[in-house]
Amino acid sequence: MAFVMRRSAAVPLLVAVFGLAGCTDAESGLASPEDSRPAARTSVGSMVPTSDSSGSASSGIDSVDPCSLLTDSEVAAFGKYQEPNARQVGTARGCDWNAVRENAQQKLPLISFSVRDNVGVDGVVDLGTGLQRGEMDSGREVVRTTTTDHGCLIAMAVGEGARVDVVVDGVEPDQACDIASRIAEIIDPKLPMG
């Protein structure tokens, strides 16, 4: 079953925005969800135990390689993709999977991860449709935001001071969030709880 949150409504632009979103440790407050209905839950496999219960970023996130979070067969479930491309944006370690296109008019999803060692889900920036907070069945806190026309980000907490962003861009928000939710479900048991 896919991880689903309330419905609401990007490649280089989203990557740049998400890169800037994690560049500060300052918090000006907490955003409230637009809708107070509880988020749906996912059926997720086992959690990865950690030995650090402090919630700090030193609880294993520093060893997470974003390009190793999806296997070739897992990414193939979403289409035909080129080899993953590692990148660094600010302090975030990232990885992108670009779809193989037959022509420039094809709307195919870009899959991207950003591992943020120094900013948690409270640092997620609203991309235009509000911040929707939820929780995976494992207990992991998540925050979702989308642009109004394309792209979806699901930030997955790794303790209080770190997160992994799952970004799907290049397709309509509903499709992007469906894919991002399915990917979050796949990688959840691979991430430390913090």
Automatic annotation (TrEMBL):
Q: Which InterPro entries match?
A: DUF3558 (IPR024520)
UniProt feature, compositional bias: Low complexity: 51-63
Q: Which UniProt keywords apply?
A: Signal
**Top-level lineage group:** Bacteria
Keyword check for RNA-binding, yes or no: no
| Entry keyword Signal | yes
| Region span, Disordered | 28-63
Give the Pfam families listed for this entry: DUF3558 (PF12079)
Q: Which residues, if any, are the signal sequence?
A: 1-26
Give the protein's recorded name.
Putative NAD/FAD-binding protein
